[in-house]
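Team,

Forwarding the record for the chain on the shared tracking sheet. I've put the sequence and predicted structure together so nobody has to dig through attachments.
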Amino acid sequence: MKFSTLRLLGSKNFYITTPIFYVNSQPHIGHLYTAVLADAKSRWKQIKKEGVVFSTGTDEHGYKIQKKAALENSKCLNFCDKISGEFKSLFDQCNIEYSDYVRTTQTRHKNAVLKFWKTLNSKSYIYKSSYSGWYSVNDECFLSNDEVEDALDSNGSTVKVSKESGHVVEYTSESNYMFRLSEFKNKLRKYLSSEVIIPKNYLDNLYNQIDCLEDLSVSRESTRVFWGIPVPDDESQIIYVWLDALVNYLTVAGYPDKNKMAGTWPPNVHVIGKDILRFHAIYWPAFLMAAGISLPKNILCHGHWLMDNRKMSKSLGNVIDPFDILKKYNSDAVRYYLLREGVPGSDCNLDVKNFTKFINVELANTLGNLYQRCLPFNKELVYPLYEDIKSELTESDNTLLENLNMLKHKCDEHFELFNFYLGIQEIMAVLRMTNGLVQEYKPWELVKSNCDLDKKKIKKLLFIVFESLRISALVLQPIVPNLCQDLLDRLNVDLDQRYFSNASINQNQNKQKHILKKSDVLFKRL
C-alpha cells in the first residue's frame, strides 16, 4: 500500500526529516537505520490518516568533498552525483518512501541558504573577524581548546584530536565571518528543557556544551574551501558547510515563501544519529532563533550500530555493506531486524545470528506459519463473520480478542516514541497467544470429525486467527510493508480498510467474505 501521496494541502502536515547524508563516502548501515526509523514513523502517521512530509537527501559541499573528488580525478559535482545516487538507490531498495529528496547542490537550496544568510546578517548576528582555533576536517566542525585533547597517531606521534569523535584536528587561523552563538546560551537551555530531545539521556552533555559556547565561525576562506556556496557580496568566503546543510529543512518546507511553509513548518521531528546532535540541538536552533523562525518540536537521537560489540571500521574489517545485506536477505527482513534490535537510546550490536533468529522465529514461524497452518482446514476459503461465532466464544477466546483490540493502542504508545522494538514485542506476544490457541483447539483433529460442534470450533478458530493476522498486519505495516501488503491481500482486506481505525475486531461485517486462494509460503525462512 503506497502512502507517499498522503500529503495534505491547505493544512499542517507532520514534517519528519532525516539528516542529509554527507557524500564523502558510500552509505553505511547507520545511515540506513536513520532512514528506516524515519520511514517507519512516517508510515505510522499515514496509517493514522495524518498528512506527512518526509524528507531525506545528501549534503554535498565542503573541503572533504573537494578533496575526495580530487583523489578520484573527478569534478566535484560528478562525484556528488555518483554518491548521492548510491544513497538514493539504497533507500529505494529498502522501501524508504520519502516525499522529498533534497541535495545541497540544487538551485532551490542555494537560494534558500543565501536568503537565510542575508536574514542573519540583516539582524546583526553575523560579523567579520579573524578566527584562530581547532578545526576537524572529518567532522567539518570548529572546536574550542576544551573540546580537544592529546592522542597518539598510528606512528606514535602526539596529535590533537576531538574529545567527542576522536578525529584529528588542525589549528587554523583565517579571516572569517562569525555568528554570535554565545548570545543564545539561556535561550538554548530554555528550548532544550521543554522535552525536545528524545530520549532524555543525551541532554546532560548538551547542557555542558552550552556552558562553554563561543561565537561560531560560519565561513571559510575560498582559497581553502572552494566547493560550497559563496557568501553574498563576498566571494572570498564560502558559507560554513553545516550552516549550508541545516538550511535543507527550510528548503524542503518552501522557505522563504511563508505560504508554502505554513503547511509544513516547523518540523515535528528531526531523526539523527548521536554524532551530529550538537549541530541539530545547539547550532540549528540558535540559527533559527536569530532568524526569527519557529523551532523544531523534537529531535530523535539514536545511537550507533556496532559489529561484535565494536565500532565498525575498515581497519578492523567489520564494516557491513548495507547493499550486500539487502541482496542477501530482502528489504522487509532488513527493516524488521533494524527496528526489532535497534534501541534509539543506546548503541546497538549487529549480530548475524540474531538477524537470522529474529526473522525465522518471528516472521517466518510466529506470523507466517500461523497463516499457513490454517489453510488445510478452510477448503472453502471462508473468512467467518463475528455474528456467526460470537456465541461460541470462551473466556480464553475473549481474552485474546481483548488483547487484539488493545494492540493498536499499545503500538501507538511505543511507535510515537520511536520504540518500534517494544511495539514489535507486543505484536509477537499476541501472535504467540494465537498460535497457542491453535495448539489448544487442535484443528487437525477437529477436521476429521462430523460433529457440528467441532465444525463450529473450526469456524470460530478461523475467525480468531484471521482477525489476529489482519490486525497484526495492519500495525506491522510501517515495519515490514511488503509482507503486510501480501498478507492483507491474501486476507482480502480492501485498501480503504488498512488504517489505524480498522485495527480492531470486526464485529460489524455482515456480508460473507472469502480469503484469496494463495497457498505459497507467506515468508520464507532465511
